Amino acid sequence: MEKIVAKLLIYGDMPEDSILMQLANVAKDLHKPEYDKEDLIARVYRQVKRLLELGTENAFDDNLWHNYLTYLLIMDENPFSLTCEKVGSKDGSVNHFATADFHAFKQLFEYDFREIEDKLGIDCFSCITSYKAIEKPELMYNTNVSEKVRDLSSRLESARSDQEFFNIVTDFYKRIGVGEFGLNKAFRIRELANGKIEFNPINNMDKVVLKDLVGYEIQKKKLIENTKAFVDGKKANNVLLFGDSGTGKSTSIKAIVNEYYGDGLRMIEIYKYQFRLLSQLIAQIKNRNYKFIIYMDDLSFEEDESDYKFLKAVIEGGVETKPDNILIYATSNRRHLIKETWKDRRDVEQDGDIHRSDTMEEKLSLANRFGVNIGYYKPSRQEYYSIVKELAKRNGIDMEESQLMLEADRWELNHGGLSGRCAQQFINHLSGK
């Protein structure tokens, strides 16, 4: 194994503590004239445990060794894989080195662990190459990662030549992508000690789709039109969804990401205290072959907060143009995002017409930088009834209509008033009985 790993060039800069490098070192030490058998067994078991942990975390199955090697190929963001992500596999000298690396990976796929097992008197590799995963709820792992790795692993197992192996991997890079962005829909960010940003996948994102959101057809149509133009590479606008709480603003954005994930749409959720990282965030994603929505939930500012000025410059107006593959979608209970007070009108001047004060213009200009503004308002009582009836139907609740409406009225009186969220909570309550 150590000789195969030593031949890797493009994929050869894996961390020394990776499972593959550690097992290669075990194989190397095993070929020395003298070796400590117990030490090598302990080292093997540590790496097998890591394989089991990775397999459990991602619900890998059948052959954990193949799943692991496939996971390495998917996650390695190198110049070759990133180029394939953007333009596919093109003729070039780099293909010669990539093909050699894929030949090495094909050898690793076919590697016979019997020598290690026979010399050390162990059978763990026989077990992990014919592995049966424990069934568990989907919420316990990321199905996007699991399904894609297992599917690609199965296809690579059947590759009959180095060229076929090459074609399968590069096709995956072009269709799906490379690294965390290729496997996941949504992310949060974390600042590292070196000042860089780390993207943390959101593994249990709500699977809601737009048809699950009852009503608000005009609002959904506007959101779909803008997002469809965006993923198609056409001009699109930043979007502000504003209005009453519980009306489906956040749900609409989650649904739109689920709808267009297959078209390369990804979402990055960012909090207000992280706005100072926006420039760095944009710099790290602007050259990737995805469309990114930077999502800001429940966005609003108090009158003494000034972070909104930085956000204004990033959205539109700074020296650097915002990349075409990035839009900002925000939700807010406030139409103009920033708290406005009567004292903001004190410097209003009158000269034939009434002109808004500079303070007011400063505050209102942030909301104006969202090209699409979509209002979500509390439903009327009849609309509330319609939402309740539709949700009851979808959840198989069989109750006489007048009784259902009576119970719905009682529920909303004690749970925040008329809203889609209140209706959903009421149906959850009935379903749980």
TrEMBL record:
Which CDD domains does the UniProt record give? AAA
List the InterPro entries hit by this protein, alphabetically.
AAA+_ATPase (IPR003593), DUF815 (IPR008533), P-loop_NTPase (IPR027417)
Superkingdom is Bacteria
Boundaries of every AAA+ ATPase domain copy: 235-353
Which Pfam families does the record associate with it?
A: DUF815 (PF05673)
Question: What is this protein identified as?
Answer: AAA+ ATPase domain-containing protein
Q: Which organism is it from?
A: Butyrivibrio proteoclasticus
